[in-house]
């Protein structure tokens, strides 16, 4: 069942057409350059490291986690979600159910909604490093708004769970 707010669309900032173009252009560059994770996620919040346990394996260091095939696969999946959001800028509501379920999965493994702020900062850092001078304030704003819309949909996964689940 769709959430009452599920008819959300890409938040149209001024110059929305250029924002969409900026997102598409920068996503294409990320794909070409194979942007990967940087250690700042764990520098910003070391408490996130234990959340990335695969097959009950605990990583001794952020570097061990960042180079683990399972973590790299997780990053690939994150980039697929971002790519899907960029591809559906004009109709993000088609991703609502998927993102809500993704939020439920993240909650089930102990992720806190607040952690998405740290992930946002890490994503923006990665984009800045990958895009260089093309990472303008307008591009940063567009990415922040898109990421915010994705996280808002994921947060509804938390809201959908009854207390105690």
TrEMBL record:
- Alphabetical list of Pfam families matching this protein: Globin (PF00042)
PROSITE patterns, per the entry: GLOBIN (PS01033)
- Which superkingdom is the protein from? Eukaryota
Please list the reactions this protein catalyses.
Fe(III)-heme b-[protein] + nitric oxide + H2O = Fe(II)-heme b-[protein] + nitrite + 2 H(+)
Tell me which Gene3D superfamilies the record gives.
Globins (1.10.490.10)
User: Which family does the UniProt entry place this protein in?
Assistant: Belongs to the globin family.
Protein name as annotated: Nitrite reductase
**Species this chain originates from:** Columba livia
